[in-house]
Amino acid sequence: MDKADLEGKQEYTITVYAENRIGLLNRIAIIFSKRKINIESLNTSPSEIDGIHRFNIVIHESYEVVRKLARQIEKQIEVLKVYFNTNDEIIWQELALYKVSTDEIAERVTVERLLRQYGASAVVIRKDYTVFAVTGHREETDALVKALEPYELIEFVRSARVAIIKDSAGFHEKLKEFEAFEPGEELVENEFLDKGQKIFTM
User: Fold this and answer.
1) I need a labelling partner for 29 at 20 to 30 A (CA). Which of 45, 60, 73, 141 fits?
2) Nearest one of 100, 195, 83 to 144, comparing CA atoms
3) Structural domain tally of the chain?
4) For the segment 2-55, what is each residue's pLDDT rounded down to a tens digit?
């Protein structure tokens, strides 16, 4: 990463692996609000590890600010690990839903062509409206909004970002390393099991 990238602001996706405890999301949000940093997108979901949730937080900031934020978030007791990546370092998608007048679609070939062009699929078809779903990057979903505005676009909603880090073997591998380096208490509790009669004979 060159000096210009380090100093200039750009979009970063912060990935947080943590136990899903009450109040954690609020404490993470406070870390951002105290620094007057706007969260552009926030998504939480189960991860590949049972009992561990994954938070994807999108912000527009400089490298140094994001690095300090990641360190601050990692200080939360439930947080296991925090990563931060530029858009080039992740694979990401967002889901968008568009509600359009069914009559408008039936009467105008242009609308049907537009929806096909953006890979939209019908989710619900009713007499008064049809709901289409599109997955893609924000620029693509925003472009379809603009394209549909002249054709009675009734409603539009977009989900938060979901992202996977390109150069990652998965956090479960990292977790195995942590457990090997810092064994849990259950290993200590079982330290006498192989001693047999030597320990338990009176």
Assistant:
1) 141
2) 100
3) 2
4) 444 556 899 999 999 999 889 999 999 999 999 999 999 999 999 988 889 999
Tokens found for residue 194: 């192989």
Predicted TM-score of the model (pTM): 0.77
List, in order, residues 6 or more apart from 131 with CB less than 8 Å away.
97, 98, 99, 100, 122, 123, 124, 125
18 and 66 both lie in a single domain = yes
pLDDT in tens, 122-166: 999 999 999 999 999 999 999 999 999 988 899 999 999 999 999
Same domain, 34 and 80: yes
Instruction: Residue 134: give the domain boundaries.
Output: 91-158
Residues 65 and 80 in one domain: yes
DSSP letter (8 states) at residue 88: G
- Going by C-alpha positions, the residue among 34, 29, 77, 86 that lies closest to residue 55 is 29
